[in-house]
Every structure is written in structure tokens, then in C-alpha cells.
Amino acid sequence: MKHKASKSLAVVAAIVGISACNPPQEQSAQDTTPIELTVSPADFAVEIDGDSVQLYTLTNGTATAAITNYGARIISLQVPDKNGELVDVVLGYKDLASYRKPGEGFYGAIVGRYGNRIAKGQFELEGQQYQLELNDGPNTLHGGTNGFFMKVWEVKHATDSSLELQYISPDGDAGYPGKLDATVTYTLTSDNGLDITYRANTDKATVVNLTNHAYFNLSGEGDSTILDHLLTIRADGYTPVDETLIPTGEIASVENTPFDFRQPTAIGKRIDTADAQLLLGKGYDHNFVLKKDPGLQLVATVESPKTGIIMDVLTEEPGLQFYSGNFMDNVQNAKGGKTYGHRSAFCLETQHFPDSPNQPDFPSTVLEPKAEYRTRTVYRFR
């Protein structure tokens, strides 16, 4: 089934601009207020198997976000620094062709059906065993070799500050049961938050764990390190992993470990200590068990000492995967002709826990027919 952007939306490529005090307006071909981007919309305007791909730009009058419907990816996110200058804090490639290459790293994408890892790509549901595509050694990572990050999403609605995208995943897609109708809505809010709302329903019991895989550097994409960033995570526990980065099932205390970020701590302060878990992940690549009250809650804060940019992470999810860019190395064809090096970005992926379908003590990721999957995350900048 094809998922095409409507002609009126496809024409836009969403180069728009409004005052933050004006109400959102439907995008049209007449919306031509220039916005300075770090990428060219022309490098993202292609057709893939008959589906239209474009670059859409959201603005609130202060910040801008560029998003493509290929993989529902955040391509750039420009927010003011301490001097009021716009800084692009999201890493990415300069053209769509680079995002389509194998091993591109999930930059900025919505990953699914199941974000993070499932052991051996297997799980049992309602008495039936399912085998998924393997793409991370013996395991499945972020939905398999052709997950949501590789799909052209349909543009359902677009305004100057919001973009709603839909992908319908057929029964058996990558081995997952049930037809899943997934919708992601990006909204750039008046307080410089990038609000991401996820919704999904299914016609058959399945597992769902959607998240965004943006790589951040609050000193600006292309800056050499994130080790000087101060990180706070509101978590007393984390899930230790085995040698293939699958959770052991234990929830371990962060007390007296390099995983204690309950107070602002430089990411690089303890990253190279001889800790068994850090050695397995070559740094941080672990799920933190959040101290959660119902509803949207502040769960993490990151600050760059160079730009003064502070990012708050708010979510309704029970887990947060912190990845410190350990496997980044000489990433070519990035925006601005830059090359991304080792640990030059971090990810904070709001989620349910890795391998939950095989871990009965973890929060369930099962979605039943007639139930709605709905969750929300905000990356807010100040």
C-alpha cells in the first residue's frame, strides 16, 4: 500500500515562517517566508517507489525544526544559545541519499515497531512464537533491517508549527504480528519544546515500543564532543546488560556507580572507568528506570557549558535509553560538510524497556486490538 503526501503538502517542502503569537496556519504554496536552514530542501525532494518525500520546516518564531517524512526523521533543530544565536543541536546528513545507505545510524528517525533490542529477535505472544529480522548480531534492533526508519510516512496534516505523519505497517511486517496503524505528530511549542506525540492501534495483538533516535550535541552539530555536557537523569535504577547488550532482567541501583546521574554530572567524568557494564557498551548504552509519576514528567536535563543551551526531557514513558555515541567514528557527508567523530553526540530515547516481550517483570509492551497506544515526549530548550 502506498503512503503518499498530498499534492498540496508536497509542493510546500514547508519553508514557512510565522510570528510565535499568530495561530498555526495550514501550509500552502504561498508560504514563502525564508528560513535559513542547515540543509537544502532540494536534497530531500525525491520519490521512493512512487511515494513523495519532502523536507518540512516548523517554526515558532524563535526556533526551527526541519523534518522529513522519510523515516519521520528530525533533520535539524535550531534553538537559541545564551547569546540569542541559533544553534543546530541535532546531528544528521546533508541529503536524503545518505540516510538511505546501510548502517546510517538511525539519525533522527522514528524507530519501530520496537525501539531498542529484542533478544534473538524472538518473542512469544498468545501462545505463538514470532521470529523477527536480525540486524544487531544475534538480536533485533529498532525494528529490523527495514524498520519504520526506512519507510516513507504519509503526511496527514501540516501547519507552520506542527506536522502529523502516518505509517501503516502490514501484518507480518519484519515478522511482527498484526496490522499496525501508527501516527507521530511533531509540534514546535511556544516555549521552544519539540513535542512528539505517538499513537497506534492494531487489529491483532502485537508489541509496540516507538521512540525517536535523535543525536544531540548542545554545543552544535559538528562540535567534537559531548563529554563536557552536564547530564541529570531522575532514575534510581538501570537495567544491566549481557555481552550482546540485552538486559539481564535485573534492575540495579545507580548508587555508587558510574550510572548515578541524579545530580548534574559531566558525561565524560566516569565514562572510561573500569566498570563491567561500561566496558560492555563501550560507554553508556543503557536503559534507565525512571522515577515516574502519572502523566508527562521531567526525567532528564542536559546542559552545554559552551553555548549555555539546556535541554529538558519530559515523557510519559517508564524508561530512558542513554547512548553516549560510543560507536560513532568518522561519520561522513554530515550537514555543513562536517565529519562526526567518536562521542560527538548523545541520545536520550524515551521508551519502554529493551527486550520487554521476553521479560515478564518489565512493563508490558503488548498492544491489544481496540486499545490505543498513546504516549508523549517533549525535548524542551532554554
TrEMBL record:
A GO CC term attached to the entry: cytoplasm
Principal place of residence: cytoplasm
Any one GO molecular function term: carbohydrate binding
Known catalytic reactions: alpha-D-glucose = beta-D-glucose
Entry annotation: catalytic residues: 213 (proton donor), 349 (proton acceptor)
Co-factor requirement: Ca(2+)
Residues that hold beta-D-galactose according to the record: 116-117, 213-215, 285
Documented EC number(s): 5.1.3.3
Class of enzymatic activity (EC top level): isomerase
Pathway: Carbohydrate metabolism; hexose metabolism
One Pfam family linked to the record: Aldose_epim
Record-level GO BP terms: galactose catabolic process via UDP-galactose, Leloir pathway; glucose metabolic process
Localization: Cytoplasm
Parts forming coiled coils: none
Keyword Chaperone: no
Keywords on record: Calcium, Carbohydrate metabolism, Cytoplasm, Isomerase, Phosphoprotein
CDD domains to which the protein is assigned, alphabetical: galactose_mutarotase_like
PROSITE patterns per UniProt: ALDOSE_1_EPIMERASE (PS00545), PROKAR_LIPOPROTEIN (PS51257)
Keyword Cytoplasm part of the UniProt annotation: yes
Family the UniProt entry places it in: Belongs to the aldose epimerase family.
Self-association state and partner proteins as the record states: Monomer.
Protein name: Aldose 1-epimerase
Species in which this protein is naturally found: Parapedobacter indicus
Classification of source organism: Bacteria, Pseudomonadati, Bacteroidota, Sphingobacteriia, Sphingobacteriales
